[in-house]
């Protein structure tokens, strides 16, 4: 697999999953005698990403000192670049647990809360609400409690438990997304087996509309890339985001019909969206490098939410010196996209300076809602019919009982426009 870009901070991937069955069985048996800590979803997602090699070269959960350093300066205390803290914050009772102990980490997202991982405790530290607020400000660019990422982060607890972990499984992701979930190691193998060396990653938490499709094709062409990795977030999203299985079906249909053969690989990773804008764009780049990707498409408001971030802040953060000297992956910076009436295709608006506003099909959320209200199909300039049909099948009441379900319709329209 030497034809691909090297992992971040290491010559090899360092997945923390226990693969040997006898070792895994032994750990499960031992865990019955250990203190058991039920993780929150954020800490569980971190464990899955560590297990899958996405967070190479980290060996476990960060200490308070590292977490504060990463949130402020994007480096650990030993100088490793990392864009967001990878931590185990908890509200759970840990009475009787001491530094040096091993504890069993329970999966909050699987019925019965089975053991997900074993952690050897290096530190147990308190984090004040003020410190959490400061970290949130650094990570999310705001400490507004209405921001979904801030709201979740500041509610995780005030006890931080650091230390190395051994992970037993990938939680619910392989069972719920058997054809989509893949580890960084598996993706690197797919890319290598395909003979790809220049690979563009496309991050998505939503179904792909025409602009997304064209962005991928533009990146492939302009970078002379071998292929694109369409990489979906499979973990927890904010309320109203399209579920993973619907996204997966819509994207697979689009690729099947509209992409040239052997130019796209569809996959997904087990992580919750942070909605951290620029910092999350850096995290996306870091673990796509660990997948073997040479480039990441970063467009307008990447990993953003609401109006918290400037449209292209997620591109500009890659100009930071620590980023440029730390990451091997590069970005494909995308501009606003719109359908050109002159050229009869989706274009980046910066690429067609001979166009006026009237030369573009610019659809507002209000206009799309009006069309759906009248039972009209979404325009071909906006969404592929096959993709729109899959979304319509998921929200049938929004079309047949519009007035009684106006809130649901508004939700669909907002998601399509993101």
Provide a quick synopsis of the model.
By secondary structure, the protein is α/β, with parallel strands linked by helices. It has 16 helices and 15 strands. Helix 3 (64-73) packs parallel to helix 4 and helix 9 runs antiparallel to helix 14.
Describe the secondary-structure layout:
Layout: H1 21-31, E1 35-38, H2 41-51, E2 60-61, H3 64-73, E3 89-90, E4 102-106, E5 115-120, E6 123-126, H4 129-140, H5 148-153, E7 159-167, H6 173-176, H7 184-193, E8 199-204, H8 210-222, E9 227-233, H9 244-258, E10 264-269, H10 278-291, E11 295-298, H11 313-316, H12 321-326, E12 330-333, E13 337-340, E14 345-348, E15 360-361, H13 365-373, H14 385-394, H15 397-400, H16 406-417
Parallel strand pairs: 1-4, 8-9, 8-11, 9-10, 11-12
Antiparallel strand pairs: 2-7, 3-7, 4-5, 5-7, 6-7, 13-14, 13-15
Q: Mind describing the biggest β-sheet? A: 7 strands, mixed
Basic shape: globular
Kindly report the average pLDDT value.
89
Helical content band: 25-40%
Distance, first to last CA: 36 Å
Structural class: alpha/beta
The total count of helices amounts to 16
The parts where pLDDT drops under 50 for at least 5 residues are 397-409, 411-417
The gyration radius over C-alpha positions equals 22 Å
Q: What oligomeric state do the depicted chains represent?
A: single chain
């Amino acid at each position: 697999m030497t034809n691909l870009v090297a992992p971040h901070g290491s010559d090899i991937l360092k997945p923390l999953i226990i693969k040997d069955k006898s070792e895994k069985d032994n750990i499960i048996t031992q865990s019955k005698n250990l203190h058991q800590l039920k993780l929150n979803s954020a800490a569980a997602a971190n464990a899955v990403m560590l297990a899958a090699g996405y967070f190479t070269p980290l060996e476990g959960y960060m200490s308070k000192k590292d977490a504060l350093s990463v949130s402020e300066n994007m480096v650990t205390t030993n100088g490793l670049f990392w864009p967001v803290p990878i931590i185990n914050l908890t509200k759970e009772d840990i009475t009787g647990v001491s530094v040096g102990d091993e504890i069993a980490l329970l999966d909050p997202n699987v019925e019965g809360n089975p053991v997900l991982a074993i952690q050897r405790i290096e530190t147990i530290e308190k984090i004040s609400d003020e410190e959490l607020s400061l970290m949130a400000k650094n990570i999310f660019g705001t400490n507004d409690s209405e921001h979904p990422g801030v709201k979740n982060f500041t509610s995780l607890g005030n006890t931080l438990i650091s230390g190395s972990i051994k992970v037993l499984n990938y939680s619910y992701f392989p069972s719920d997304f058997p054809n989509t979930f893949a580890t960084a190691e598996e993706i690197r193998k797919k890319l290598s087996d395909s003979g790809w060396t220049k690979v563009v990653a496309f991050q998505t938490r939503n179904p792909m509309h025409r602009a997304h499709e064209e962005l991928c094709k533009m990146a492939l062409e302009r970078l002379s890339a071998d292929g694109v990795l369409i990489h979906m977030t499979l973990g927890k999203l904010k309320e109203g985001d399209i579920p993973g299985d619907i996204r997966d079906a819509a994207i697979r249909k689009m690729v099947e019909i509209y992409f040239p053969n052997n130019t796209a690989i569809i996959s997904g990773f087990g992580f919750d969206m942070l909605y951290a804008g620029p910092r999350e764009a850096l995290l996306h780049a870091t673990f796509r490098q660990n997948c073997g990707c040479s480039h990441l498409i970063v467009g307008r408001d990447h990993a953003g939410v609401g109006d918290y971030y400037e449209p292209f802040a997620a591109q500009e953060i890659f100009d930071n010196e620590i980023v440029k000297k730390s990451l091997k992956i590069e970005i494909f910076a995308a501009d606003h996209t719109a359908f050109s009436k002159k050229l009869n295709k989706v274009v980046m608006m910066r690429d067609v300076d001979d166009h006026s506003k009237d030369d573009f099909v610019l659809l507002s959320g209000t206009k799309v809602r009006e069309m759906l209200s009248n039972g009209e199909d979404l325009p071909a300039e906006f969404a592929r019919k096959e993709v729109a049909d899959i979304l319509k099948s998921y929200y049938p009441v929004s079309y047949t009982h519009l007035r009684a379900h106006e809130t649901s319709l508004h939700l669909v329209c907002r998601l399509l426009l993101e």
